[in-house]
Amino acid sequence: VDVMKFATALTDKRVDRNPQDCVYGMFAALFVRGRYFLGSGDMPSAYADWELAIQLLGRELGLDFLESTKWALRSADLLLAYKASKEGLGRILPSEGISP
Q1: Which residues of the chain register pLDDT less than 50?
Q2: 75 phi and psi, to 5 degrees?
């Protein structure tokens, strides 16, 4: 999946979107990959993935589609992980039901 093309297609009607792309899966993949980068000490890559995932939720989380699903991952999981890592709390991340 071309992550940038996928993210752009969500907001720009001129960009074609692959019908197999899954917004839920993209958000989850960015969250998990960001946790991997965080665990390996690559903070810039972790933040890049998490910031893109936050963009998928839209301005002021207006597109927060995760709250209306049965997926175990919630936007709050990402926001807490992002905040904790920015504040130097490192590995204090939500993990219930989610593998890094």
Answers
A1: 91-100
A2: -60, -30
